[in-house]
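Hello forum,

I keep getting stuck at the same step: I have a sequence, I want structure tokens, and every attempt I make locally crashes halfway through. Rather than fight my setup again tonight, could one of you with a working pipeline run this one for me? It's a single chain of 125 residues.
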Amino acid sequence: MEAKAPDFHDPALASIVETLPPAVVDALPYGAIRLDREGRVTFYSETERRLSGYDQPTVARSFFTEIAPCMDNAQFRGRIDKALAAGTLDITFSFVGDFNDPDRELDVRVQSAAGGGCWIFLRRL
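Reply #2:
Ran it on my machine without issues. Output:
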């Protein structure tokens, strides 16, 4: 039986994604990126790779300094850091800017990952 893709706004999105085989996460209709506690990429979905146009190696690289420095700002990383400091990481926000299109609107969902770190889900509008 084929696994149904979880809804982007499901309250348990990260928990559900963590139960899915990587091939299913790769095929989600939105990008999925998992970062460890230090901000290094441990998973970068094929959908995110395709939609963002980023085709360089990602695993074990620092997301905010090596892959997406355009997101290393108060509007993106700052929101994540603020939520982490408050002790909860379950935030949704809009962000403008993508690798190939600085004017593209994104819906961003960030939730805690099991064992530390976080999941970043990106839906292009």
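The CA atoms of residues 16 and 115 lie 15 Å apart. If your local run keeps crashing, start a new thread with the error log.
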